[in-house]
């Protein structure tokens, strides 16, 4: 009985060390790619960014974590303008449907691509913590859905009025130009 308990404890210890080692290795690799990404942006080298995106896509087969996906999606959106591919990946990420700050980016992309987006914005509203009027993502979603709001909410908000008014602008094409310049 004692031998099986000792074996069990040693097994748990080995599994923990293996997990820790793999996470450390993954973090080192992630940091390396993050530095490559920053260098490519500073150099404004589109070829390097395309190569990096391809490498990260390969890494995703082994390290299919949200941090890798977020880096990849960031390159696709901000540098390569591959919006449809980014949406496909973002849709698979639970954090996009749980975090208002990340979810709003998915909604904006869907709206820009003229994909169904209303449920996405409603999820953002649902994920904004109270008081909702103090979160710019709330105002962006309210504006996109053309939902009602009160002047009192705007007055109570800690967000500057001009930022809120921009989000509530009924001219969605103007807003899309700000987020996705041609």
Short description:
The chain has 182 residues and is mainly α.
Topology:
Blueprint: H1 2-43, H2 46-59, H3 66-79, H4 83-91, H5 100-112, H6 118-127, H7 136-145, H8 151-156, H9 161-167, H10 172-179
Structure description:
It is a single chain. It is built from 10 helices and no strands. Helix 6 packs antiparallel against helix 7 (136-145). It has helices spanning 2-43, 46-59, 66-79, 83-91, 100-112, 118-127, 136-145, 151-156, 161-167, 172-179. It has 182 residues and is mostly helical.
As residue ranges, the low-confidence spans are 1-22
Number of helices: 10
Helix content, binned percent: over 70%
Radius of gyration: 21 Å
Global outline: elongated
What proportion of the residues form beta strands (DSSP E)? under 5%
Mean pLDDT: 84
- What can be said about the biggest beta sheet? none
- Give the helices and strands as they follow along the chain: HHHHHHHHHH
Structural category is: mainly alpha
Report, as a whole number of angstroms, the end-to-end distance. Answer: 70 Å
Give the strand tally: 0
Key features?
10 helices, 182 residues, 73% helix, elongated, mainly alpha, single chain, 0% strand
């Amino acid at each position: 009985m004692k031998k099986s308990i000792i074996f069990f404890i040693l097994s748990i210890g080995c599994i923990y060390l293996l997990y820790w080692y793999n996470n450390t290795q993954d973090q080192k690799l992630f940091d390396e790619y993050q530095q490559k990404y920053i260098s490519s942006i500073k150099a404004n080298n589109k070829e390097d960014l395309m190569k990096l995106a391809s490498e990260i896509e390969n890494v995703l087969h082994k390290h299919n974590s949200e941090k890798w996906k977020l880096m990849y999606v960031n390159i696709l959106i901000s540098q390569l303008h591959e919006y449809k591919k980014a949406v496909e990946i973002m849709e698979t990420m639970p954090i996009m449907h749980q975090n208002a700050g990340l979810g709003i980016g998915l909604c904006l992309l869907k709206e820009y691509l003229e994909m169904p987006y209303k449920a996405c914005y409603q999820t953002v509203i649902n994920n904004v913590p109270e008081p909702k009027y103090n979160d710019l993502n709330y105002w962006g979603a309210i504006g996109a859905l053309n939902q009602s709001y009160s002047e009192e909410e705007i007055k109570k908000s800690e967000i500057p009025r001009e930022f809120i008014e921009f989000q509530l602008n009924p001219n969605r094409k103007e807003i899309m130009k700000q987020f996705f310049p041609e």
